[in-house]
Amino acid sequence: MSDYVDNLGLDISQERAKKALNIHPATKTNGINYAALVNARAKERLAKMKKSLTLTDAIQAKNRYKWGKLPIGLRGMLLERVFYHRGQGMWWYDETLDQHFFLPYALTSEGENSIDFYGQYQLVKPYPFNGKAESNKKSDGKRTTQEIYLGSITRVPVYDIDELEAYIAKHGEEWCRTHLCVIGRDYTNMTSEWNEPRANLQQVFIESQAEILPMMRTAILKACMPKLVKVADEGVYDSVIAELQSVEDSILAGKTMIPVTSFQDLQELEDKSSPAIVETMLRVWESYDNIRKSNLGICNDGAFKKASQILQDEQDENKVRTDMILEDGLTNRKDLAEMVNRLFGLSVTVEMSDSMNKDKEVEEDGRPDDKDVPDQDVQ
């Protein structure tokens, strides 16, 4: 072949020949590593989907309750952030800084009787929201001012109002304000001193829900697959392209009859089952989303929503399940507010947020009364 090219007097290199034949060398984007690149993009896209759903879940969880009359240095969103990401926290007052704090806590190593017979901590110490006071050190081995401060604090935890009243009766209010802290939890705990953060518990549903999106996208792409038009040769190619463009323009213009002159055979690439798969994926997505909302106490249509009309008894059952979770969180927060108000002389309030109350009002208003139901003739 090279002798033939030389005899013709053509100076064509191998690189120019491959370029003329549209043959490109293997690279990361068009060679043997293309599959790895596609997989990396898919993983990145899935990770972003999970982050987006996690953000939605955090926003919904942190805005279920509304706090009021909090002391300087504390905001309702700070309290809810500790609840959502850490599950529980300790509230104490520092006289030196003249400030109230609410942070995660851990068992202190001081004393031999730090845990009672029920597994409850008897002495606790706070740690920063993003770490522990004992482990967060700079590269030079020195501890920050915050770490030194939190590491020096030890408090006796109080878990309910009756226990607090007993401490006040025994030691007096002044001693209790400087030696006690109030424990607040996101939900009723299962074990004595560990509330799994809701942010961790929700991840299993968030991850499953995020995996539905790529499947749904694939099904939609298959449902929207274009048709192949078989043409005789390249000469007919341009006329067919123009004809198809004319068809698309006519459809957009609202025309119901479209004349064609060079109609060709169409080869279907569409998967007939794709529309049904897309609908199934949408229902699965909605089911996962409803399960996630149920864990937050947010009203929804339930995990297994039927295509037909849902009976009123089923709606009531779903509502009761979510209300119990929502009321449980409110009860724990009210207990915290009651104890800190008694111990520190505050007037902290907490109630359902406006959005949660609106959801309840919509559900209650949406129920048909007996008088609104038209009488039916008995046949």
Characterize the structure shown:
This protein folds into 2 domains: 59-225 and 273-364, Beta Barrel (Upper collar protein gp10 (connector protein) fold), CATH 2.40.500.10; 226-269, no CATH class. With 379 residues, it is α+β, with helices and mostly antiparallel strands. Helix 3 crosses helix 9, helix 9 (203-223) runs antiparallel to helix 11 (274-296) and helix 11 packs parallel to helix 12. The strands form 4 sheets. It has a 4-stranded mixed beta sheet. The chain has a two-stranded antiparallel ribbon with strand order 1-10. 50% of the residues lie in helices and 10% in strands. A hairpin with a 4-residue loop joins strand 2 (88-94) and strand 3. The longest helix is centred in the C-terminal third of the chain and has 33 residues, at 312-344. The protein starts with a helix and ends in a 14-residue tail after the last helix. The model is unreliable at 28-32, 135-140 and 367-379 (pLDDT under 50). It is elongated and about 100 Å long. The chain contains 13 helices and 10 strands.
Q: What distance lies between the first and last C-alpha atoms, to the nearest angstrom?
A: 94 Å
Helix content: 40-55%
- What class do helices, strands and sheet pairing give? alpha+beta
Give the C-level CATH assignment of the largest domain: Mainly Beta
Overall spatial form? elongated
Tell me the radius of gyration.
33 Å
Tally of helical segments: 13
CATH superfamily of the largest domain: Upper collar protein gp10 (connector protein)
Number of domains: 2
Low-confidence stretches: 28-32, 135-140, 367-379
What is the name of the CATH topology of the largest domain? Upper collar protein gp10 (connector protein) fold
Main sheet: strands, sense, barrel: 4 strands, mixed
Query: What's the average pLDDT?
Result: 77
Total number of strands = 10
Strands side by side in the biggest sheet = 3-2-7-6
Measured by DSSP, the beta-strand proportion falls in 5-15%
CATH architecture group name of the largest domain: Beta Barrel
Q: Order of helices and strands, N to C?
A: HHHEHEEEEHEHHEHHEHEHHEH
